[in-house]
Amino acid sequence: MIERSDQDGFTDFINQLNGGLNNVELEFRRAQDELNGTPVMALTNTNGQKIAQVATGYTPTELEYFKHLLDAIVMADDEMFCISSTAALHEAGRLKNKENKPLALTKREAENLLDRYIADQWFIRSKAGAYSLSMRTLLELQTYLKETYGDQIQECTLCMEIITKGQRCSVAACSSRLHQHCSSTYFRNMNNPKCPTCHTAWSSKVLIGLSDGASAPSKVRKRAARRENGAAGGEEDDAEGSGRNQDDA
């Protein structure tokens, strides 16, 4: 077991490192894995617009596809924060360069590139083939995500870290979102769990993201809310209804 003094000493050490790294736009960031609560740490770029410096080793076309997938996942309807393999391949046919001309990316190339993104740990692929954000992406692209998508990026009410998988309050207007591991800890000794924000009875069945065995919609439908950069959502075709819960999955 790690003593409290050791934890404090390690935190002080990381803070000192970050003080020296600020000048080169780098920072050590810590969080807990969304799926199991395991502590993770990453050296990250603090300049949100330098996504190309983070996702190194990709061609401009491959990086553009990466950004399309990121956009589709973050803006997925009903806070699903994932897209199906069919939808991911469909996005490959929507790529355009700065001159608004189509970029060539075959289905086979897109499939290989998706496998590469998974191997590089930028995305997670569920058993049912749904793509979602990895902890590497949430940590290394944290600044980019927050600056690009604004309040479309949700934070856990308890740990204040970005959340794309977990639980949410059953009251639509309530802002409470909890990671599974944060929820387990917070409600551990409560006979009648209540929302930490609005104090409504808490149901662990109202989800953010999809359970591992659930299938994402085959077509992308983006949320209608506007992002900070002014781009409108509500773009595509088909999605499952709102109010998803564990029983639906």
From TrEMBL:
Chain positions covered by the region annotation Disordered: 213-249
Alphabetical list of InterPro entries matching this protein: Nse1, Nse1_RING_C4HC3-type, WH-like_DNA-bd_sf, Znf_RING, Znf_RING/FYVE/PHD
Residue span, RING-type domain: 156-199
GO CC terms in record: nucleus; Smc5-Smc6 complex
GO terms classed as biological process: double-strand break repair via homologous recombination
EC top class named in words: transferase
Annotated localization: Nucleus
Sequence similarity: Belongs to the NSE1 family.
Name assigned to this protein: Non-structural maintenance of chromosomes element 1 homolog
UniProt organism field: Entomortierella chlamydospora
